[in-house]
Fold this protein.
Amino acid sequence: MPARLLFSPAPMTGPLIVYAIGWMAFGLWTSLGRPGIRDSAALVARRAVAVWGLLTTAWAAISRLLHRRAEPKPRPATA
């Protein structure tokens, strides 16, 4: 991995990469290690559904922008 994480607007230095990895590990520990198996599965499933909803909403918005029809030009008035 180069010195940038995905979607990072600035280059990541060594300490920031370690900090980001620490937060990811803490999130993994919280969602998978600390609660029981059933709670972990529920957390992962809920997060997956939430991310899927966000992705479909974003895709619909992008699709609307890309496939927007040009407004028709007004016809000149005829007498």
